[in-house]
Each structure stands twice: as structure tokens, then as C-alpha cells.
Design a protein that fits this description.
This protein has two helices and four strands. The chain is of the alpha+beta class. This is Fungal-type protein kinase domain-containing protein.
Length: about 90
């Protein structure tokens, strides 16, 4: 059996690849929840940045992230703004 970090990498890849394949994205954000802790992950086509584990019920990170994400530009949310519909 693969070690836990390899399993997590495989899970991230399984989640991220279809999003990059079917949507025009420069990056995506994922929330990994494990029991009462969570990690935020920013993935792009070259890799992922994972923040340290935190207790999501006691920390302001989730609410702060969602507030900032909701008010972010399309580009900051990961949408590839250089892609346009052909006319």
C-alpha cells in the first residue's frame, strides 16, 4: 500500500486533472477536510501548494478564504481570462 502522502497526491491528481481538462483554468483551489481539520490547496498545471493543517471550527481561515474568493476577480479565482469564444 502507498504511504499517506502518496495517497493524498493521487487524490489531488484525481480531483484536479478533470478540472484542467474540461475547463479553461490557470489554477484551482481545493479544501481537504480530514476529521475536524482542513487544509487549503492551490493547484496549477505544474504542482500544488498545501497550507498547514488547521481546525476549521476554531480558525477564521475558511470564512476569510470564502469572503476573499467571492469578491475576487475571475482571473484570481483561476479562470483563464485569455480564452474567448470564437465568433
Amino acid at each position: 500500500d502507498p504511504d499517506p502522502s502518496t495517497q493524498l497526491l493521487n487524490q489531488l491528481t484525481t480531483l484536479a486533472v478533470p478540472l484542467f481538462t474540461h475547463q479553461f483554468r490557470n489554477h484551482i483551489f481545493l479544501a481537504l477536510i480530514q476529521g475536524d481539520t482542513a487544509r487549503l490547496v492551490r493547484c496549477d498545471r505544474s504542482g500544488a501548494i498545501v497550507i498547514g493543517s488547521f481546525c476549521y471550527a476554531q480558525e477564521p481561515y475558511p470564512a476569510d478564504f470564502h469572503c476573499r474568493f467571492a469578491n475576487a476577480t475571475s482571473n484570481a479565482r483561476g479562470q483563464d481570462t485569455t480564452v474567448h469564444r470564437l465568433s
